[in-house]
Every structure is written in structure tokens, then in C-alpha cells.
Amino acid sequence: MESKVSEGGLNVTLTIRLLMHGKEVGSIIGKKGETVKKMREESGARINISEGNCPERIVTITGPTDAIFKAFAMIAYKFEEDIINSMSNSPATSKPPVTLRLVVPASQCGSLIGKGGSKIKEIRESTGAQVQVAGDMLPNSTERAVTISGTPDAIIQCVKQICVVMLESPPKGATIPYRPKPASTPVIFAGGQVRADPLAASTANLSLLLQPPPLPVSALRFSPSSRLDASPPASTHELTIPNDLIGCIIGRQGTKINEIRQMSGAQIKIANATEGSSERQITITGTPANISLAQYLINA
After folding, report:
1. Where would I find the H helices in 106-202?
2. Alpha-carbon Rg of the chain, whole angstroms?
3. pLDDT of residue 18
4. 67: CB partners within 8 A, 6+ apart
5. Strands 143-150 and 130-133
6. 8 A C-beta contact, residue 76 and residue 33
7. Domain with CATH 3.30.1370.10 in the chain
8. Domain K Homology: where (predicted)?
9. pLDDT digit string (tens) for 71-102?
10. Nearest in space to 104 (alpha carbons), one of 52, 143, 138
11. Domain 5-168 is in which class?
């Protein structure tokens, strides 16, 4: 990723992810999708919203930094408009701040906080926005929520400064993106084990969940130490996947399966289709940790 910061702005393409509740998403989409269409057209950014039957949704904004800042401005002002409209029906006198939640790789949060909290303090003081970095990672991911509150203008300035930090300090190692789960599906068993049975979810849900938001290239790099350290002996695990889901796992021209191989560090082989069989066999080879991560990414 090009990470030079010019005087007039950041001349790079970025992907920023936001975590929103259903009501917030409804506001962004608007009647018949008109609001999000307008935001896309006027900002020039790509705005994608994750699948619909989850209490929380991921909104992914991708584009040149100027386009991203325009999209953030439009979202912040829309939320302020919603607050003003809701206040006209309530006795409250003080206007609550606009709040946005970013989703940031945990490996970048240290740079965002700074030594002894110096960087986050500087961002708060220079923008007037409140910034909180969650102490814990989001479930089944290596990402944390960063909550920004303030006026729309303060939020826009804050996002600009956060983007500079993220470009100057790319993620270390692999990033497992946070994906909200449908409210109806229990995803964590007692003991914190991740559900990893593709047949337990409906075909529609699974095929959507298997298409994560675009990851920055830097998120797929492994630190040199992750490959050079002494590691447990390799083992092999096999699983079967229905034929109609295999395309989601392979991705266009193999991009998805290559991404899973890079992120997990495992070798993954997909058997050729067998006549008369409705399933394909996948063989995963690597350390137990590699295999576990590959399984999670395949079934997420």
C-alpha cells in the first residue's frame, strides 16, 4: 500500500470499516436505498453493507482518501439530522453527540493509542472528538472497535488523523476480520469454541458470510517471525463442503482460497468434483493453529 502523506491530503486508496446497529444502517440506506445511492454518487466512495439478518452490520467504505472523508462527512451529518429529528419529540434539552464505531486491526491500535496514551490524547485535543479504543478484540477476530463521538466536523477531523496513523503503521501479521453473526444463530459454545459446521447454516447465509469485506493488502502479510519460529509438526485435516458452496470458497479465479491460504499459513487442496457426489473434499495441512484458522476462515 502506498503510504506517502502529502500536504494536501492522503493520495492513497483505503478501506475503512464501520460497525453499525440496524437502525443506523436503515438511516444510511434510506427509503428504497436512495440515501446510500446519493452518498456513493456524491462522495465517489464504494459503500458496502454486510448481510441483513444481524443485529449489527459492517459498513465498508473504500476509495481514495478524499472520497472516504466525504462519505464519512455525509454519514456524520445524516446521524446528526437523525438526532435533531428525534429530539423534536423528546423533552431533552442538550443535543447528544454523533457517535461512530470504526473496526480497526488490533495490531494497529497500539500506534493509535501511542506511548502512554500520547497519540490518542493528541487526536482528542486537536479535533475535539472523544476517542475510545476497546480493550478487547471483537468476537472471533483480531480487530477492535474504536468509538468516536463529537460534532460531525470533529468526527471528520478525527477520522483523517486515524487514517494517517493507519497508513503509517500497517497491520502486523494476519488480520481476521470481524463478521457479525445472525441473531438467531448461536455462534459460541460453552468454552468459547467457534461453531464450524457449514451445514448448520443455511446455504444463503453461508454464501454471504463467505465473502468478507475487502482486506488491505498489508493485512495479508505475515511477520517474518511467524514462519521462522519453531512450530509444531504438520498434520492433516479433511472436511467436506456441498458443491453449491465451493465457488464461494474458491472465489473468482481462486482469489478467495489464495487469501485463506495466505492468512492461515496452511496448505489447502480441493478435490476435483466426483460424478454423482453432491460434495467436494477439502484437505488442510499445517500446524494445529494453521488448520484451526483455515477452518474458521472457510466456515466463517
Report:
1. 106-113, 118-127, 152-168
2. 21
3. 96
4. 43, 44, 45
5. antiparallel
6. no
7. 198-299
8. 12-80, 96-167, 233-300
9. 999 999 999 999 888 887 766 667 889 999 99
10. 143
11. alpha beta
Looking only at the bridges linking them, the beta strands covering 13-21 and 56-64 are antiparallel
Closest to 64 measured CA to CA, from 120, 16, 116: 16
Q: What kind and span of H or E run contains 281?
A: strand 279-286
Residues of the chain with CATH 3.30.310.210: 5-168
* pLDDT at site 237: 86
Amino acid letter for position 232? P
Give me the CATH topology for the region 198-299: Ribosomal Protein S8; Chain: A, domain 1 (3.30.1370)
| 7 or 175, which is more confident | 175
Type of residue at 12: V
Residue 154 has pLDDT above 90, yes or no: yes
Q: Is residue 264 within 8 Å of 286, Cβ to Cβ?
A: yes
Q: Which residues pair with 267 in a beta bridge?
A: 285
- For range 245-255, the mean pLDDT: 82
